[in-house]
Amino acid sequence: MDTTSAPTTSLPPLKVAVILGSNREGRFGPVVADWFLGRAGRYEEVETELVDVGAARLPDALSFSPGPEEAARVGAVSGRLAAADAFVVVTPEYNHSFPAPLKNLIDWHYTEWQAKPVAFVSYGGRSGGLRAVEQLRQVFAELHAVSVRETVSFHHAHALFDGDGNHRDPAEADGAVKALLDQLVWWGEALREARNRRPYGG
């Protein structure tokens, strides 16, 4: 009887673009994004890259023919989004919605989002940014992206982190990150395989 085990196929890490969606002066987003990136770095299944709307400086006016400088800035972001297998959007909640620069980044792109999963890490006051997340789910559905159910949300976020960016009581948040990443990896790998077999036609 042949007891030789069949070789296991190791899938390449899922390329996850973590999008920091606020550029407001004094923003708290980098604290949340850095914390999440640190947690995601513990998972061999994912490979993360930060896309910061503040650093991207995309043009405010959408155009089919932007000038050379504007086109270069858009192209630099477009390539990173196109290369991603999945996305995690880090967003605050401003006036019951999500930031305008985040919508601007989303609207500059289309095919880059298609047939890929999107997860959300939100922060804010009492609502923890969840109203922004619910609106973003509708936006990404229109772009043929799949939003995963699990989220990570920080209610009264400023009080949850110390001056070094460490969560004061991380056990529950760590569990939420694991649930989010487990779902994101499942959808990411399934959709990556599907796109490789048959390009998504919209």
Automatic annotation (TrEMBL):
Biological source species: Streptomyces cavourensis
Domain of life: Bacteria
Official protein name in the record: NAD(P)H-dependent oxidoreductase
Ranges of residues in domain NADPH-dependent FMN reductase-like: 15-158
